[in-house]
Design brief:
- The chain is α+β, with helices and mostly antiparallel strands and 390 residues long.
- It folds into five domains: 87 residues, no CATH class; 79 residues, no CATH class; 49 residues, SH3 type barrels (Roll); 85 residues, Alpha-Beta Plaits; 44 residues, no CATH class.
- It has eleven helices and ten strands.
- The strands form three sheets. Strands 4-3-2-1-5 form a five-stranded antiparallel beta sheet. A three-stranded antiparallel beta sheet has the order 6-8-7, with helices on one face.
- Helix 5 packs antiparallel against helix 6.
- The longest helix has 33 residues.
- The radius of gyration is 38 Å and the shape is elongated.
Length: 390
């Protein structure tokens, strides 16, 4: 009786009612999440003063402290202090196990340190323009795999765990997780494909599906594109590998097209010659290949001409500037040569005494500015031209 009473007293915590314990646990978990979020939010501010590696180390340390505090609070709320103490007392590792554990920790620590050192060297190479960010990401991940896999197998060997059994278990888990997260894994694999194939790099002007903009970030899972409307679009890498990608930065030049219409009464050959000469006078337009003009189509109110010219070092800003300059220069040249750029027109016609619309000209000599040049009237008479009034 006395021993059972002692255990009961020893397990008494701050809260005894299950409902109170549940509420307290939820509050602890919520507090842990808030603290974790605050740690990473403050970390973004610290990165402005410290290096990324130092900031990440501080964030990791603070996260560990928060997790320990939250765990201790949960143990106390659910009256599990004695159970934890008993579990710790049952842990009686031998000297041999302690030595192997220290060696395992040392191996993991050395491996992690080597990955950080190699990452630093890779970053220095990128800063010197020896490699691109694409290549930096590839090298970093390859080095991580090359270092951590042997370290993992070494630790298994220390504790006499068969690597074959571990690999078999990992294969089974891989199949399970593969079915559960096949879309995410597909995006990750596609990310590696993009890293190696390099269809585009950071800062490239690309068009993917219906999205056009500048690539601002490339991760293992998705690619970030900022459109020219300043919208941020995240495209999954597996979708990118299945679509056509237009990279306008890869080439050192870009052909730009501008449509302009001329009146049907215009000498088209003369208009094409004037437009070509006007384009050649624009500084941003390349002289080779020569700018040219072709007849695109016959529009409702105009003969549509397409002005085609090239620019170098293509970017969206240079394209817009070139289009504006060409349109201004061509418009000025057309005005000088008396070439009309028409506005949309409609021709109305009607039949007299048809019971429908009749078009009647305005009386000549009228000086009323409010009077329209054409009037539409409805003839309500019969076939003999009667008024229809009785």
């Amino acid at each position: 009786m006395g021993g059972g009473r002692a255990v009961t007293l020893g397990q008494t915590g701050l809260l005894d009612a299950p409902s109170e314990q549940t509420v307290a646990s939820l509050l602890i978990l919520l507090g842990y999440l808030l603290v974790t979020g605050a740690i990473y939010a403050v970390g973004e501010l610290i990165k402005q003063r410290l290096a990324n590696e130092s900031t990440e180390a501080l964030q990791t340390l603070a996260g560990m402290v928060a997790a320990i505090v939250a765990g201790a609070a949960l143990v106390n709320v659910w009256n599990q202090t004695d159970a934890v103490v008993t579990a710790l007392e049952n842990i009686k590792p031998s000297v041999d196990a302690l030595v192997r554990g220290l060696i395992a920790l040392l191996a993991v620590g050395v491996t992690y340190t080597l990955t950080r050192i190699t990452k630093r060297f890779v970053q220095v190479s990128e800063d010197r323009d020896a490699i691109s960010r694409h290549q930096r990401e590839i090298l970093h991940h390859v080095v991580q795999i090359a270092l951590f896999v042997p370290a993992f197998l070494f630790v298994l060997g220390l504790f006499k765990v068969g690597a074959g059994n571990v690999l078999l278990s990992a294969s089974v888990l891989g199949v399970v997780f593969g079915f559960a997260a096949r879309q995410t894994l597909g995006a990750v694999l596609a990310g590696f494909v993009l890293l190696f194939s390099r269809p585009f790099e950071l800062g490239d002007w690309v068009e993917i599906a219906d999205h056009e903009g500048v690539v601002t970030d490339i991760t293992i899972v998705n690619t970030e594109v900022r459109t020219f409307d300043d919208e941020l679009v995240l495209l999954p890498n597996d979708e990118i590998t299945q679509r056509a990608v237009i990279n306008r930065t890869k080439s050192d030049r870009l052909r730009v097209q501008v449509d302009v219409g001329v009146d049907y009464g215009t000498d088209v050959e003369h208009a094409m010659s004037v437009a070509a000469e006007a384009m050649a006078e624009v500084d941003v337009v390349e002289s080779q290949p020569n700018p040219d003009v072709v007849v695109e189509s016959f529009g409702d109110s105009a003969v549509v001409l397409t002005l085609r010219f090239y620019i170098t070092n293509p970017s969206i800003r240079r394209k817009w500037d070139a289009q504006n300059a060409v349109m201004e220069r061509v418009k000025t040249a057309f005005e000088r040569e008396g070439i009309t750029i028409p506005f949309p027109q409609r021709v109305l016609s009607g039949r007299e005494r048809a019971g429908g619309l009749a078009v009647r000209d305005v009386e000549e000599g009228s000086d009323d500015p409010e009077r329209t040049t054409e009037q539409m009237t409805t003839d309500g008479g019969d076939e003999d031209g009667g008024s229809g009034d009785e």
